[in-house]
Amino acid sequence: MAVLQPNGSSIAGMIVTMQRLRKEKPVSLGRHRRTCTICAHPERFEIEQAFVTWASPAAIAKQYGLGDRATVYRHAHALQLFAKRQQNIRAALERIIERVGDVEVTATSVVAAVQTLAKINAAGQWIAPAEQVTLHQLFERMTPEELEIYATDGKLPSWFTDLREGNHSPR
Fold this sequence. Notes:
By secondary structure, this protein is mostly helical. The chain folds into 3 domains: 11-87, no CATH class; 89-118, no CATH class; 135-164, no CATH class. The protein is 58% helix and 0% strand. It has helices at residues 11-24, 29-35, 44-52, 57-63, 69-78, 81-87, 89-98, 107-118, 135-141, 144-153, 158-164. The longest helix has 14 residues, at 11-24. The radius of gyration is 26 Å and the shape is elongated.
């Protein structure tokens, strides 16, 4: 049962609202730099690199003598390191693949990790495999008018060029 405040709102609702505001509210970098133990740390660059390359925030805090993982998360939030970390998803997958000899894994999990790694580009973006269409399938999709234009002018329908560029048509 939620505890109601005099204005009729619940404490749980206020906490959720405060968390949402904290995430959306821009961080004062000046204030952050004055109070942040990571910003003042002599190994700040190494700490940030460890976070961006998917090291555990708890392990980072322990290794560099920081308060706890929340310190690492606060610093990462203030300096917008999460976006860099997301772009570096390849590093996390590479760590998994490198540990193949150290832990019990199945062949299926190794193959899945390698396949996943192969589908992520250097910017950390998922690259979907292109759809392959045979010439026979292309002709089956064409209307009689499109077939006539192709036969006389050699011009492919616009939906085919859209398909090649990754834009899927409703056909």
